[in-house]
Amino acid sequence: MKFISTRGYDKKYSAQEAIVMGIAPDGGLFVPESIPTLSASDMDELSTKSFAEISAKVLSMYLEDFSEAELLDYTTQAYAEEKWGETPLPLVQLNEYNDKEYILELWHGPTSAFKDVALQLLPHLLTASVKKTGENKKICILTATSGDTGKAALEGFKNLPGTEIIVFYPTGGVSEAQKLQMITTDGDNTHVIAVNGCFDDAQTGVKMIFGDSEFAKELDSKGIKLSSANSINWGRLAPQIAYYVYSYIDLLRREKIEKGEAINFVVPTGNFGNILAAWFAKQMGIPVKKLVCASNKNKVLCDFFSSGKYDRNREFFKTTSPSMDILISSNLERLLFEITDMNAEQVKEWMSELNSTGVYTVDAKTLKRMQMLFVGGFADDTGVSKTILDVYDRTDNVVDTHTAVGFNIYNRYRQRSGDETKTVYVSTASPFKFSASVMDALRGEGYSDGKDIMEVMKELSDESGLEIPAAIKDLPNKPILHKDVIDKEEMKSKVASILI
């Protein structure tokens, strides 16, 4: 299987080339030429498999340069018990008396966020791809983060031979725990830089660096090649498809659903990668009725699925769910390419309009196709706080702010539509990463004001009965190793100073 650009670049690439490059030469995103499907016999075979085995199977259908045995070796290492516990991705029934609601906990990995699922695996895929392509240059992982990708990427790539990793994060745009996780990261190849601005500023800066052909030539002359750990890289997105397949298989083997019974997935999303992975799982044959795209107050996606108009020219809000504080959802480009029957010229035109004016509007046919599957909605901080308390009162589960956005939107959708389909809520982060906001929701607004972060975490642990994750527990005692703060216009020169 070859990979092509969403913007119509005339060359096709192998999976290994797509993973090493990260982004297509014309600025488009790599997608597979065709989407593989899971047969009935495949589904039966997977019913006895672990998540690592299911992941290897799904990946093998896209990454044909890798054998399934090779991929299983990587997934077994990536999802090892010492990193994730006995059950890496628990699918929990929320209430024993209600078999219609489940929560997929994706945050039991090394950094307590769902990004670990892909970013524990990506270093294996990338280093193997480098060898397969015969590349002998140093690979620099260049990444913008709204909070979770940064630390997960740092944890995956630190001290990995032949790589450097540079992470840009927005000042004031991440939680205290997220910031501490990043700026205390050790490793002789890690670089963490704060950018004055929001996530979109950091992400746009990274994309501009990737698109700078002269800078690429300069780096090439020094034996350096850029790649990405953001979900713009197919090697980051593909592992996420596996956990939607796994969720469905797990419900089947636990006899919670019948064969062929469709389910809903509720996905809090900002950059659109996580929910796009669910869309790919559906195209592979997983029966899905609705994909609920849950946004916070930065509701550009919600508005888009309602009207067909994508407009980033709006006020930017810093919210209690900072990983979703995004106005430019990069992975939407992949959906538009697929849903317009691979109309690269049309996608290229829309992306050009977005870049030049900040706005584009899709045609009625495209909008209708999206609305048949996707449901958009948004929740502000007040609604998120209320939902955290409601979920706790109703199910005894404490959820983080991002997961609460999903619960909020789905509850309103269900009341409006009467949809009683069995539903999986995708839980993207440990509540301890946003402990102040969670405790404020449980005890009252302002409860955590002025309190030490570890004091708040201890109270959350006592309240919820959950243990503080090891990756977070010792953060205040770790030395701060990364202190740089720059303006967005300085990002390229910063990268040059590190690499050249």
Question: Could you explain the architecture of this structure?
Answer:
- By secondary structure, this protein is an alpha/beta fold.
- Helices cover 46% and strands 16% of the residues.
- It is built from 23 helices and 15 strands.
- It has a 6-stranded mixed β-sheet, with helices on both faces. The chain has a 5-stranded parallel β-sheet with strand order 8-5-6-7-15, with helices on both faces.
- A hairpin with a 2-residue loop joins strand 3 and strand 4.
- The longest helix is centred in the middle third of the chain and has 20 residues.
- The radius of gyration is 21 Å and the shape is globular.
- The mean pLDDT is 96.
Explain briefly what this protein structure is.
The protein is an alpha/beta fold and 500 residues long. It contains 23 helices and 15 strands. The strands form 4 sheets. It has a 6-stranded mixed β-sheet with strand order 3-4-14-9-10-13, sandwiched between helices. Strands 8-5-6-7-15 form a 5-stranded parallel β-sheet, sandwiched between helices. A two-stranded antiparallel sheet has the order 1-2.
Taking all Cα atoms into account, the compactness measure Rg is: 21 Å
Strand order of the largest sheet: 3-4-14-9-10-13
Q: What is the total tally of β strands?
A: 15
Report the sheet-strand fraction: 15-25%
Count, helices: 23
CA-CA gap between termini: 36 Å
Which regions have little confidence, pLDDT < 50, spanning 5+ residues? none
Structural class: alpha/beta
Largest sheet: 6 strands, mixed
| Overall geometric form | globular
Q: What is the mean predicted local confidence, pLDDT?
A: 96
